[in-house]
Design brief:
Elements lengths: L1 H140 L3 E6 L4 H5 L6 E3 L4 E6 L2 E6 L2 E3 L5 H6 L3 H7 L4 E7 L5 H5 L8 H16 L3 E13 L2 E4 L9 E7 L2 E7 L4 E2 L3 H14 L2 E2 L7 E2 L2 E12 L5 E10 L6 H4 L4 H25 L10 H5 L1 H4 L4 E8 L6 H15 L10 E2 L3 H4 L3 H10 L93
Parallel strand pairs: 1-5, 1-16, 6-15, 6-16
Antiparallel strand pairs: 2-3, 3-4, 7-8, 7-11, 7-14, 9-10, 12-13, 14-15, 15-17
Helix pairs in contact: 4-6
């Protein structure tokens, strides 16, 4: 049994070992199959894994670079911010310093500006004083006074692209800007486009007093066509020009002088059309020519056959001007819709008589609206208008030649080269006060014509005509001489203030011009002696209280008025005191 048991154990052991061997073999086969399979599948797995890892590494590297770049940028930004903060601090310090310097400079600038302003005030005052003295000197020399007036630029010129090329200064200077630079001109007065008719006439107004004092005056407007000459001289009904305002001023001055003077004003208006003189008040076919006549020791030019109208009010003057404007020649050109085709000359002859002294003055006021100079190519005129333009330019050239000859003081002045200069010979010849308006256009389209007009005006301003003298007739004998009987009575009234008398050649006095002697004007008054009128240069005596007043217009000796420049009589030392009511000479 023991052997059987051992045999059985041995068989079981062998069976168990065989099963274990089979299991081990089967496991080894399976392991080998798995290993073989694993070996076959390993490259694909590792390849995918390697690719994923490689991609992950690349992504990480890329992100690392980005993070590094961002970090560097952040560092740079922080550095810049630090630098900017430093710079900002520095800038703030500099700003504070500049503010302090600016404050100091502002104080200095204010002081400098006040000093400059004070200096400019003094300079302008000195310039005005210098200009006044210069004008007085020019007045003594008889220079032609020149005023420059510029019209506003029109909407049509602006629409064409034109611009204003003028600039007016504070010292009566005008500057013209051209493509080649700028040119400045100085005149006696300047009027910019904003000036009014009233402002223009203010500087012309004093000449009207000269007319009543016996001085010939000539006012004329020169410039290219369309520059505003006719508006300056004639104006409109609502805004009159120099012509109407001058006559209005003359009538105002006449009214101020009162009834001691008698006045007569005559107006004639003519036009010079194609070098022919036309009467605008009484138009006709008669040919008018310039002739000469002698007045005392002088000669004057006049237009033979030219009609004159006596005027007594401004309304009559306006009617006459309206009549002349209807008869004047005008035409439309490319440069001016209502272009004057002739020179218009309005002459006012003013005769004044002092009823007290018998002194009379006779003066002529010429107001001339010259036709505009024009370039035929620009104006676009043809036919008769072309002939008119040529005649206008020739007459203006003749005027320029006359002014040039006067400026050179030539022995011969070519007045007869044109009807215009022949008519104005008296005005330009020396015994006259001459004022010229130079009218210009501000448009850049007309800059060449503007410069030409200003150059002409500058040459005219330098012409010396000589000091003008008044046309005064001497006082009559009845007024300038003291009758013997009145002189004796004067001695009786006031022996200490005896008035010397001029011996008369006749016992009867000659009446003043335009006055009739009153009946008994030389008779001795019953109440008191009539005061004697001193001779020229004699001391003047005041009449006694209650002395009879002579009749208005009588040629008796009027209340004593000393002549201009007469010295006052002074009583001798120890002379008797005058009677009550009698006064010493003023």
């Amino acid at each position: 049994e023991r052997e059987e048991r051992e045999e059985k154990k041995r068989i079981e052991k062998e069976e168990r070992e065989r099963i274990e061997a089979e299991i081990r073999a089967k496991a080894a086969a399976e392991r080998a199959a798995l290993e073989e399979k694993r070996k076959k599948n390993l490259p694909k797995v590792w390849k995918k894994k390697f690719k994923k890892e490689k991609q992950a590494k690349e992504d990480w590297k890329k992100k690392s670079l980005e993070l590094e770049q961002l970090y560097n940028e952040m560092v740079e930004i922080r550095q810049r911010e630090a630098e900017e903060e430093k710079n900002q601090t520095k800038i703030l310090e500099e700003i504070e310093l500049l503010k302090q310097l600016n404050s100091d400079l502002d104080i200095e600038l204010r002081m400098t500006e006040s000093q400059i302003e004070e200096v400019m005030k003094k300079y302008k005052k000195e310039a005005k004083d210098r200009k006044k003295l210069y004008n007085d000197l020019q007045e003594l020399k008889g220079n032609i006074r020149v005023y420059c007036r510029c019209r506003p630029i029109s909407e049509q010129e602006i629409s064409r692209g034109a611009v204003d090329v003028t600039a007016f200064g504070d010292l009566d200077d005008v500057t013209i800007f051209t493509e080649n630079g700028k040119k400045t001109f100085e005149f006696d007065a300047n009027f910019d486009p904003d000036s009014t008719q009233e402002q223009v006439f203010i500087d012309t107004q004093p000449l009207m007093l000269s007319v009543l004092d016996g001085f010939n005056v000539c006012i004329f407007a020169y410039g290219q066509t369309g520059s505003g000459k006719t508006f300056t001289m004639q104006g409109t009904e609502a805004n009159p020009g120099v012509n109407v305002r001058a006559l209005n001023e003359l009538f105002s001055l006449v009214k101020q002088r009162g009834s001691d003077y008698s006045f007569e004003m005559k107006i004639s208006i003519l036009e010079i059309y194609c070098d022919q003189i036309r009467d605008l008040l009484e138009p006709g076919d008669e040919k008018l020519n310039v002739k000469q006549e002698r007045l005392g020791n002088r000669t004057r030019n006049y237009v033979d056959g030219l009609s004159q109208r006596v005027v007594n009010s401004v309304n009559e003057v306006k009617e006459i001007i309206e009549l002349s404007n209807k008869n004047r020649s005008v035409a439309s050109t490319n440069m001016n819709q209502h272009s004057s085709r002739s020179h218009l000359v309005m002459t006012v002859e003013a005769i004044s008589v002092d009823k007290l002294t018998g002194k009379s003055t006779r003066a002529s006021l010429h107001m001339v609206d010259l036709a505009g100079s024009e370039r035929v190519g620009r104006s676009g005129v043809v036919g008769q208008a072309l002939k008119e333009a040529q005649s206008i330019n020739q007459s203006l050239s003749a005027l320029g030649n006359v002014l040039s000859a006067l400026g050179r003081k030539d022995g011969h002045i070519p007045y007869r080269n044109s009807k215009l200069t022949h008519v104005l010979a008296d005005a330009l010849g020396g015994n006259s006060k001459v004022l010229m308006f130079c009218n210009i256009s501000p448009s850049s389209d007309n800059v060449s014509e503007t410069l030409s007009s200003l150059l002409f005006a500058s040459r005219a301003r330098s012409v010396e005509l000589g000091k003008a003298t008044a046309n005064v007739s001497p006082a009559t004998a009845a007024v300038t001489e003291v009758p013997a009987e009145l002189a004796d009575e004067e001695e009786t009234q006031a022996p200490a203030t005896k008035v010397p008398s001029v011996a008369t050649s006749s016992s009867t006095a000659k009446p003043a011009l335009g006055a009739k002697p009153a009946v008994g004007s030389f008779s001795k008054p019953a109440t008191a002696a009539a005061p004697a009128r001193p001779a020229v240069g004699a001391a003047a005596a005041r009449p006694a209280v209650g002395a009879a007043r002579p009749a208005v217009g009588a040629t008796t000796a009027a209340a004593a008025r000393p002549a201009v420049g007469a010295a006052a009589a002074r009583p001798a030392v120890g002379a008797a005191r005058p009677a009550v009511g009698a006064t010493t000479a003023a």
